[in-house]
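The protein record filed here:
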Amino acid sequence: MILLSIHNLSFPIEDPVLKFLLVLVIILAAPLLLNKIKVPHLLGLIIAGAVIGPNGFNLLARDSSIVVTGTTGLLYIMFLAGLEIDMGDFKKNKWKSLGYGAYAFIFPFILGFVGAYYLLGFSVLTSVLFASLFSSQTLITYPLISKLGIAKNRAVNITVGGTMITDIATLLVLAVVVGMVQGDVGTSFWVKLSVSVILFSLIVLLLFPIIGRWFFKKVNDKISQYIFVLVMIYLAALLAELAGIEAIIGAFFAGLALNRLIPHTSSLMNRVEFVGNAIFIPFFLISVGMLIDFTVFFKSFETLKVAAIMLVASIGGKYISAVITQKTFRFTKEEGKLIFGLSSASAAATLATVMVGYNIIVSETETGEPVRLLNEHVLNGSILLILISCTISSFVSMASAQKIAETDNEDTVSGNSHEEESLLLAINHQETVERMVNLGILIKAHSNTEDFFALNVINEDKNESSVKNAEKLLHQATDAAASADVKLQPLKRYDNDVVNGVNNVIKEQEITDLMIGLEDEKGFSPSFVYNLYNGYLQNDHVNVLVYHAAQPISTIKKYAVMIPENSDKEAGFFHALLRVWNIARNSGATMIFYAPESIIDLLQRIIKKANIEAEFIIMNTWHDGEKTAAGLKEDEALIVFMAKRGMVSYIPQMRLMPELLNKNLKENNYLLIYPFSEYDKNSPEKRSFGNHRDFIEIGNVIQKIFK
């Protein structure tokens, strides 16, 4: 039967197993083959789609299965763009995004209108709709940019924000033109459109985060969390369509809504990116390729003429807008090229607009043939536009992104900071393991790929069950880290005293940061307080972090950060401050700093170079900070800079902090940070600042201020 079915094989292939196999082979082979000749594999997937599609060798039909999976890929691209955007930088650069969005809409629109009205002889309404085709842009190269690690670059940030503006404007033009052609434009039309768009925005941006925070608190199952993300993407896309705008805008808004709930270094983020880049996004690129029909360009000179005007308007308009953006905001030459590369691809909104215009029949000729709002020459020209624009976008984006990434790496290597941090998690309780690993992933430098440890100390007098329990805890820790694509090294140590065991490992592995987790019920027990002050804090060269987690760290909205007077004079202050910066940058949470005026001034100078979402409140006395800590609300957490007795920032009231936390913050997350009091003379390079690019700037600024 199998042999018979193969002999009777017909095209396009209908067997689901063979169809899926063929697509997977293309997805596998394209990067492997094209990377060797330095051709972006995104372009290879589009070309492969054209070859196997109905206009090529007709191996596969562009049926519902391809369309559905490809649509998911398109929504995924927009969702990732919203999810990975740095909200702090986004707010800081909102006017730049608006300015770029205006440039990217206006210049292609002007070129398109002139070409349509004066060169092609289209009507005013048709010319307006034709011109709007070139103002939209599809971020097909965003996955490539993200993979190179420059998704937080300012040029990428404003391009992503500008894309939202251009696509919304384009689709609004489409809605208005269609309404005018059909005679539906009036007061009721504008009211209905405005109300529906506002309602959609409020539901997605305000209600989705509430639903997401509740879900992630209640559900720990990783698969369910991922499916929930997909549900949110499609629900937002559906709400966008109901509001009268394109589904891709809904997906982008869903990314913005869940931005703070899916930390950039979390296991969920790793799953979201992995599945999208492995399956859905390649399917979308292949489905776009299936639309390409090379034969139409040899059948009609008019098609080539229309296509040429479309290319000039789209590519030329995007190039002009990128250059003016670069000059206006004083970006580097490579950042200007990156803006052009990201924005020059036309696919999603362009194709959607063309299809709508093509399907609207304005009138009929004397012979009874339909006169369409956008004729078949525009439809065929849009296919060539998609192919060429995606080709240009792929090559320009890859070239400029690689140069920016190389420059960033050079800055990292040549910077004043060469820290190679070593982070140790002292795990002893099963319920705290995953929470500690998640926090450790947030606070560690991205460049730290080897020096991340989990330790369990086994009493030499204990039986075999203690060994098995240690192995279980360490296995749980390594699994939690691996799910976020982070390597964690498990350590077992036999010792009669847990504190001695931990301290010995600190010396052996040259640990810079020790994290200890508190049990939910016990909190600061008398025995733990004794071990803390008389054991762990005796390490003068190590940051000690004491962590209590009552809820997933991704669901925290705000952190109140208490910093006592003279903390900036401690040897380990800036090292500890970088841990707070890492939490803010990787989780997107807002940091509210309570500190003396002198330290607030210092923090404000740092934030100008390395932006996070932060607020600053002057704390005149430690008692003021304690009142703030006691009044934390739900989904808020506390970070306190502590000090050992004898340090310049030590305050006697700090001894009462454990009692205060046990009493008032059982339902909240909190983190106590004890900065090291002395530099390690044996390895001073390990007491500098993180060499992750995001924090080099902080290190440089801090060093200048410190001098």
